[in-house]
Amino acid sequence: MEKTFLMVKPDGVQRNLVGEIVNRFERKGFKLVGAKLMQISDELASEHYGEHKERPFFGELVDFITSGPVFAMVWEGENVIKTAREMMGKTNPAEALPGTVRGDFGVTVGKNVIHGSDSPESAEREINLFFNETELVSYEKQD
Ligand code: CMP
Question: Locate the Nucleoside diphosphate kinase-like domain: which residues (predicted)?
């Protein structure tokens, strides 16, 4: 079954949005198979955002994502990668529709509350970067 990596960013944790965000994906019907509150190191942040290394905002990105705890999650379900991206809304909250996480709770493109993998390749890479195999749980869930 398809899996994706989602992360409530430091602004979302600070604003007590972890429960709200978990709730949205639970109600949708996806299965939570891994979760942890963690502090990201500079090394992990640089690796995670490696594809943005040349962007002018890379330093800002690393500073922000390491500025406080994040809530890292792995969710499982049919088409979960694409559907979760739709539920998150556009990267820039100003363009994200109401009803999406960023449309409802975000204001700026840097502090946009949530991160989610954008492809099967990045989902696999990000899950392996943040979670050990032993931290992921396999279980049956009623629909
Ligand atoms: P995310 O999905 O975590 O992946 C890359 C992040 O870069 C993105 O969310 C935004 O938060 C951030 N980002 C994109 N554009 C800018 C920008 N112009 N300035 C600061 N951060 C940005």
Answer: 1-138
